[in-house]
Amino acid sequence: MNPEAGSGRFRMDPEELERRFMKAARSSGTEIDIEVVMTEVAGDAEKISRERRDSRIDVIAACGGDGTIYEVVNGSVGSGKGIGIVPLGSGNDGIVSITGLHRSIDDCISDIIRCDRHPLDIARMNDRYFLNVVGVGMDAAINHQVADRRDLVKRVGPTVLYTYCTFRVIPGWKDMEVLIELDDEEPMQIKAKMLTIGNGTTCGGGFRLTPKARMDDGLLDLSLIKSAGVLRTVLNVPKAFKGEHLNLDLTFYKKFRRMKVISLEDRELPLHIDGEKGFSREFEFEAVSGKIWTVHRLGARPS
User: Fold this and answer.
1) The predicted structure's pLDDT at residue 302
2) Percentage helix, strand, coil for the chain under 3-state DSSP, each rounded to 5
3) Within the chain, what is the greatest distance between any pair of CA atoms?
């Protein structure tokens, strides 16, 4: 449990969390043992999950935001443990991508207690796994700005904050020259504004940048926005939020199993991986099946 998730927007104490689990278990006639472990610093959730790989625990639940889920996935992938989510974060895009909707805390707790098994694809970027989405380029620069202003989430909410940071970043963003290798196709060199690599559909507090993604098809989705001027970019932000940008001539969209991206410029490119920020000049992506399962039922599939 991350006590700082959502900048305290949905904060609850561990005793309250345990009470809600026990109440739900009694209501369903299920006996459970539960251990609530608090994180203190970044990396704790991954460490805690890794330490319990060989335990008798059935489900490891990430109680926090997408960053907490990211750590739990990396700590428990391949262990045979189920992944549960108690959405306490600011955006909670992970649970939306899995179930197709904003699922309540109590509904998620019920899923964890019920403990049905639903196979779930995850993905790899270089030496790290991710559940939902990676962004490279302008989208990541926006994410970095959001991360630096998390104290505003309580006042304005995640979507307003993300939109505000979007319009701050766009005017000064320099589009990037990259080389892309998709599966066995010929490499393509392109000037791009941003690349979104989705195992899930939704990021940034509701932006549907990879709306055709499915978490059980063994594939990842690439949504690439080509180089464009500031005005055209600004005017199309609402379409990106709704997942309607796929019809624009600015958008290149394709499903793949493996992809390599190399920056052709003398700069590292900003990235976010399930909301966690970073930089790199080379990226390798791969869809991974059969390594993880979740207690949450996958939602309606996009057409």
Assistant:
1) 46
2) 35, 30, 40
3) 61
Cα–Cα nearest to 129, from 296, 276, 294: 276
Q: Is pLDDT of 130 > 90?
A: yes
CA distance readout (Å), 12 to 5, 38, 64, 87, 222: 10, 12, 10, 12, 37
CATH of the domain at 276: 2.60.200.40
The H-assigned helical ranges of 151-190 are 153-156, 158-169
Kindly give the interhelix angle for 158-169 and 138-147, rounded to the nearest 10 degrees: 130
pTM given for the model: 0.91
Mean pLDDT, residues 255-272 taken together: 97
Mean pLDDT of the chain: 92
48 & 70 share domain:
yes
Place of tokens 């305290």: 8
Return all residues near 147 (Cβ < 8 A) that are at least 6 apart.
Answer: 275, 277
Q: At what angle do helices 105-114 and 14-28 cross, to 10 degrees?
A: 60
CA distance 61 to 232: 42
Q: Same domain for 137 and 270?
A: yes
Range of the domain at 36: 5-125
Task: Give the model confidence (pLDDT) of 229-240 as tens digits.
Answer: 999 988 888 898
* Same-domain check for residues 247 and 111: no
